Structure formats: structure tokens, C-alpha cells
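Incident review: delayed structure delivery

Summary: a single-chain prediction request sat in the queue longer than the usual turnaround. Root cause was a stuck worker, restarted by the on-call engineer. No data loss occurred. The affected request and its eventual output are reproduced below so the record is complete for anyone auditing the incident later.

Affected input:
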Amino acid sequence: MDDDDPLWTLLRQAARDPVPEDVREAARASLSWRDPDSALAALVADSQADADRLTFVRGDDQARLLTFAADDLTFEVEVTTGGPTVGLIGQLVPPTAARLAIDHAGGVVEVAADALGRFHAGGLTPGPMRLRCTRDDRAGTVRTDWFLV
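Output delivered after worker restart:
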């Protein structure tokens, strides 16, 4: 039993350590990001998945291209990095005017897609992200899978 005393001591200390406040805040924020009634647009293409194969052809400084597809809406998104922030440029297919909310590590940014479905947002915090789209001509929301940038 004496050989296990240091292990038990470490376990008791770990159980007493408080959870860091930034971890608590992230957990609270994740609950506000739930949207169970929206349709899911799944990731169907990611240029980063082919990056190793195409590095010698295109170079390694290319923007990341993502495509998310739902039953009646597709998100085509280009992710650009510049300094400590991330930018998104995208288009909805079929083209439609809409409001988009971008959930990211720094909060939520709302942008509008024009009548051709084009949108952009900059100054986003790197980390997990997703897009939520509310179209002007339809009820309901379509959201993408979470993706990491």
C-alpha cells in the first residue's frame, strides 16, 4: 500500500484543482451554439484533405476551399489566413439572399449574402467554426458541420 501513496496523493490534488475560467466560459458558450431544429450541411469537399497530394503541383500557399451540402443548399467557402485572424469568402448555391451567422472561437459574426449568394467575413478567431444560414425566401435554418481553421 505504501507504494501507491504518491499516486493517491496526485489523484487527490487533481480532484481539488479548479477548472480554468476560460474552459468554463467555452463550455457555457457551446450551449448557446446549439441549434437542434436546423438542417445540417455536411462537409463534402476540403482542399486541405488533398494538400499532401497536391503540394508539389499547386504550392503550399493556397487558400483552403470547403464545400458543405444539404438537401437544397450548398455552401462554397474559401478560408484565408492573414496574421492572427481568418477570413471567409463564400457563395450559396443556388444563389439566394440570406443572413449568415458565423460561430467561431471569438464569438458570433453576422453577415449578409447578396442576391447572388455571395458573402464575406474577416477578423475571425482561428479555431472551431460553423456557418448558420437563414434564407430570406424560406423558413428554417441550414448550418454547416463544425470545421477547424
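Verification: The longest strand covers residues 74-82.
Action items: add queue-age alerting; document worker restart procedure.
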